[in-house]
Amino acid sequence: MEGFRLTRERPGTILAWGGVYFLGIMIMAAVMAVGLGPQFIDFVKKGGLESGDAEAFGSLLAQSWPAFLVVLLVAVVLLSILTSGIYRLVLRPQEVGFAHLRLGRDEVRLAAVNLLLFGIGMVCLFVVELVTAAAAQHGGPGVAAIAALAVAAPTIWIGVRLSMVTPMSFAAHRITIGPAWQLTRGRFWPLFGMIVLAVIFYIMIWMLITVIGYVIVTLAGGQQAIADMSHPAPGAVIAFIASLIIQLLLPILQVVMIYAPFAVAYQQLHGDQPANPLRAHAQSS
Fold first, then answer.
1. Beta partners for 101?
2. Which positions ≥6 away from 161 have C-beta within 8 Å?
3. Where are the transmembrane segments (predicted)?
4. DSSP assigned state of 274
């Protein structure tokens, strides 16, 4: 429930993070516009971004490796800045900044950790797909499903055992792969249960905000009324602004729901005092 608590106690901070997220998205869009040129503009005009077609978007980026690498780097840095803000708010609330966000060694360190974990995840995914394809070729769909489950189980175990790497690296001011692995020894099931609940809350937030956005758009006259802004009605303008705010806040709320529990889990496993950002901030001031 840590993500809900932070959202309730720091709504202004969440809004500020939404603004930073918007800035990061604009930077990535500018990189893609420069690197891909007319192809990206045509992709946007056809509604590629709104449709959420990851395969089409990935194919577009694959046409320009420099643009892909820059977008990946900006995305990792943006995620690292936001997760650092969450960890800072929970673990070191006395450190100030723009809404507890900074761009320094902690963020660079987390970016390196995220890239490392991303690489490990890609290797695990490749192994799962390789084993599944081999099993399907020799034994059919049933054997492939069993093989996929058999390979996915240790992959999930590795992911849970490495779940404390990012908060511990932030707290210790150094990359802590080995110590984080030791910290989670014998704690697989509690951490796995926490991750499952965090994902459930993630989905709940997505569903709730999606329903709210749908209701707002419907009351304003539907999607066509918002899309045609040549003669905007007051309701359509309000719905457009509300939809924009929802689209900016939804990813931030989801990131908070996913990453905030890891900071508290690290505190508990490390034996630190429970998180209470508002009280800690008041005492430090």
1. 98
2. 181, 184, 185, 188
3. 12-36, 67-90, 111-136, 142-160, 191-217, 237-260
4. P
Quote the DSSP letter at residue 273: P
According to DSSP, residue 45 is labeled: H
For residue 143 the two structure tokens come to 């054997």
The CB-based long-range contact list for 1-5 (8 Å cut-off, 24+ gap) reads 2/90, 2/260, 2/261, 2/263, 2/264, 2/275, 3/198, 3/201, 3/253, 3/256, 3/257, 3/258, 3/259, 3/260, 3/261, 4/201, 4/257, 5/260
Torsion of CA 86, 88, 90, 95, to 10 degrees: -140
Q: Is 252 helix (H, G, I), strand (E, B) or coil?
A: helix
Alpha carbon of 281 to those of 4, 23, 89, 95, 262: distances in Å? 19, 27, 9, 9, 20
Contacts of 164 (CB under 8 A, 6+ apart): 180, 183, 184, 191, 262, 265, 266, 269
Residues of the chain where predicted confidence (pLDDT) is lower than 50: 51-52, 277-285
- Nearest of 122, 119, 52, 100 to residue 260 by alpha carbon: 100
pLDDT tens-digit readout, 29-87: 787 777 766 776 676 666 555 544 556 666 666 666 777 788 888 888 999 999 999 99
The single-letter code of the amino acid at 238 is: I
User: Rounded to whole angstroms, how far apart are CA atoms 170 and 218?
Assistant: 44
**CB–CB of 269/183 below 8 Å?**
yes
How crowded is residue 274: how many other Cβ atoms within 10 Å of its Cβ? 8
**CA distances (Å), 146 to each of 133, 141, 220, 238, 249, in order?**
12, 9, 49, 51, 39
Q: Which of helix, strand or coil describes residue 98? A: strand
